[in-house]
Amino acid sequence: MSKHSQGSGLRPFYYFEEVIAGTALLVLVAAVCWGVVTRYITETPAAWTGDIASVSFAWLIFMGSAAAFKYGMHMSIDLAWMLIPAGPRRFLGALVDLLILAFLAYATWLGVKFCLSTMDDPMPILRWPRAILYAALMCGFACMFLRYAGIALRKFKGDTEPTHRLAETPDEGGAGWA
């Protein structure tokens, strides 16, 4: 665990994204399996599994993306970036951070807007509010915004050490990627 997360008052939220995404994955697999079983083995297919699978897939995608965001696992190409001198690179880095934060804030706001506009729009089978789907978008982008705001603040203060790092060797508890 990194030094930035130890002793934090927010420790219960350290794996928030992973817990939500993992739970959504379990629900998704269970719903799809139950749908297959009831369709091909019993004579009465469970129609509700499609709605459950849709909701859990949305939560898996957006919270899984937030977890990947936290660990810096999204793709980036920094070849040209490394050719820029340190002074301009720091200024451009701050500008890029602001643009990323603006995009994440806008996407979160759109998620809130979609949630509010679909509160009265029910899902086809379960009749749950469709806002449950858009809540995944809102929560995922909000988590990405909060995580990136912390990273950007640390970078602004001059701390360039990675915030979180997955274990890379078997000694660190990782897979030992070659």
UniProtKB/TrEMBL annotation:
Pfam families: DctQ. It comes from the Bacteria. The keyword Transmembrane applies. One of its GO terms (biological process) is C4-dicarboxylate transport. The chain crosses the membrane at residues 12-37, 52-71, 91-111, 131-149. GO terms for molecular function: transmembrane transporter activity. The complex comprises the extracytoplasmic solute receptor protein and the two transmembrane proteins. The keyword Transmembrane applies. Part of the tripartite ATP-independent periplasmic (TRAP) transport system. It is a multi-pass membrane protein. InterPro entries: DctQ, TRAP_DctQ. This is TRAP transporter small permease protein. It is found in: Cell inner membrane. Residues 28-157 form the Tripartite ATP-independent periplasmic transporters DctQ component domain. GO terms for cellular component: plasma membrane. Keywords: Cell inner membrane, Cell membrane, Membrane, Transmembrane, Transmembrane helix, Transport.
